[in-house]
Design a protein that fits this description.
The structure holds two protein chains of two kinds. Chain A is an all-alpha fold. Chain A is built from 14 helices and no strands. By secondary structure, chain B is mainly alpha-helical. Classes of the chains: A mainly alpha, B mainly alpha.
Chain lengths: 325, 201
């Protein structure tokens, strides 16, 4: 089949070039192929291993109980009577078979669970705006003892990737108290945002490196938390239109569309420009700011409207709609 | 007109003998298979996870090959799908599963993630703009776009790989291209001025 009327004709898409695969890819794959199938299936991919402890312990306990009952009967009755001994031995053998059967059943259940777990994405609880925090923060006892910043940070990383952002925040704060570090401040800020802790997000935003504030603030803004009381992108005293446009372009590259929109709006206050209007419109669409998107859509040159309307429509925003909810 | 520069690999397919050995579990043949198909599988997953979950790319590439090698004895070289399309299908499904997972924001945001030190600046700018545009596409459109434009799958192969009908494939591809074009016009206005991306309605 051919592509009729290709809208990207002439563009060298190969300019978006991936890096080569890691040189040890084959070694890593061979190492994983040598792992038992069950072990590989139990691995969730994020390092987490399914905890089947309670089920296994319950079945193992049941098996031990069966064996213990048979053994107790043997002790009570005694070995005096040969027929009785034979009978008990038969019962013991039967019980052992039952234990073996239970063990097989346990293994089968384990495989089924492993297959189910491998087939579905891990249940990572991620807090949503206004939603509950999934796991309560741990007490200080749950954290590594002493002031070991590395261990605390590792603990926080684990908690964060498991979706326990509030617990991660506690660990990162403890690590930061041990040993102040820029990357730790960033972690504390990220965990504050992810755990919907607005007060801490504001507190740690102020401690972030200045050149990272704008990009990182988007993490919070996407979750509905404004970590700054004043906008991070303020127009410079002199009207630096080109600088603001560059700032906006950079923010777009980082996915910070709300910040980009602010920068483009600053540039438009310096001087109205068709290209910057287009950029502001796209930033509004990408940032899902329907009102601004409609506003800038009206200011687009007529020739560009049809083409650029798609940019908003794919986010469910109709740029021709009215602003009424 | 397929005016886009496809990056479909030009290397020859794995020879039949090596494939048979790989199907029998020969480790040298496995390695040859990984070496041959590693770059396209890695590139596919890397592109599909653009803008998120980059830390999972290597894991998913490995996982793809583990699944491929385990299922290889049942693979029919004379079947409907070629070996490479079959592998890309497995990689695509793993990547889609990954994209469906709720993902925390990366703990360390690399502001220069898209900057590469090689190549000329213009090409890098174009690459960055394409990356940003593709990252903004909905997952379903991105998959179709990347498989079509970068791996050369035809519509039928695409429909088989992601289990949707041909009409859906075509509409997703058209929407993806239109959205990317709009993004590129805005990000790199000189493309329009040079006539590479003229106005269309």
């Amino acid at each position: 089949m051919t592509d009729d009327d290709h809208p990207l004709g002439g563009i060298d898409l190969a300019a978006w070039e991936p890096p080569p695969p890691p040189p040890d890819l084959a070694d890593a794959v061979m190492a994983r192929m040598r792992e038992p199938v069950g072990a590989a299936a139990l691995d969730h991919g994020d390092g987490g291993v399914v905890d089947r402890g309670p089920r296994r312990r319950w079945l193992a306990g049941a098996a031990v109980m069966v064996a213990a009952v048979v053994a107790a009967i043997a002790i009570v009755v005694g070995a005096g009577d040969r027929d009785e001994t034979k009978r008990l031995r038969a019962e013991l053998a039967q019980a052992q078979r039952q234990v073996a059967a239970l063990d097989d059943k346990l293994a089968a259940l384990d495989h089924k669970l492993a297959a189910l777990d491998a087939a579905r994405p891990a249940d990572v609880a991620v807090p949503r705006p206004g939603g509950p925090i999934p796991v309560p923060p741990p007490t200080a006892d749950a954290l590594p003892k002493g002031c070991d910043s590395e261990a605390l940070r590792a603990r926080g990383d684990d908690q964060y990737w498991q979706g326990n952002q509030a617990a991660a925040l506690v660990a990162f704060e403890a690590a930061l108290a041990c040993k102040p570090d820029d990357k730790l401040v960033q972690r504390v800020f990220m965990a504050s945002c992810a755990s919907m802790n607005a007060a801490k997000a504001r507190k740690y935003y102020a401690q972030l490196a200045k050149d990272r504030q704008a990009a990182l603030s988007q993490v919070c803004l996407r979750l509905g938390i404004d970590p700054v009381s004043t906008p991070p992108h303020r127009a410079p005293p002199a009207c630096d239109r080109a600088g603001l446009v560059n700032q906006g372009d950079e923010a777009v590259q980082n996915g910070a569309h709300a910040a980009a929109l602010r920068s483009y709006e600053g540039a438009l206050r310096c001087r109205v420009d068709e290209l910057v209007v287009s950029k502001a419109y796209l930033a509004a669409c990408n940032g899902k700011n329907a009102a601004k998107a409609r506003d800038y859509y009206r200011r687009l040159p007529a020739g560009k409207r049809n083409l650029l309307s798609q940019a908003c429509l794919r986010f469910g925003i109709d740029p021709l709609g009215d602003d009424q909810p | 007109m397929p005016a886009v520069a496809l990056t479909r690999t030009s290397e020859p397919p794995l020879d039949e003998l090596t494939l048979r050995r790989a199907q029998r579990g020969d480790e040298r043949a496995w390695r040859a298979l990984v070496a041959r198909h590693g770059p396209p599988v890695h590139a596919l997953i890397w592109r599909l996870l653009v803008g998120r979950a980059r830390h999972r790319v290597e894991d998913l590439v490995q996982e793809t090959f583990v699944r491929v090698l385990r299922a290889l004895p049942a693979f029919d070289p004379q079947g409907a799908a070629s070996l490479s399309t079959w592998m890309l299908t497995i990689a695509t499904r793993l990547a889609l599963n990954e994209l469906r997972r709720p993902e925390p924001q990366p703990l360390e945001i690399d502001l220069e993630a898209h900057d590469r030190t090689d190549g000329d600046a213009e090409r890098r700018r174009l690459g960055n703009a394409i990356a940003a545009g593709v990252a903004a596409l909905p997952d379903a459109q991105r998959v179709v776009f990347v498989l079509r434009e970068y791996h050369g799958l035809d519509y039928a192969e695409l429909a088989g790989a992601i289990e949707v009908d041909l009409g859906t494939i075509k509409s997703r591809l058209a929407r993806a291209r239109t959205a990317l074009r709009a993004h590129l016009i805005t990000a790199l206005p000189e493309l329009g001025e040079l006539g590479e991306l003229g106005e269309r309605t």
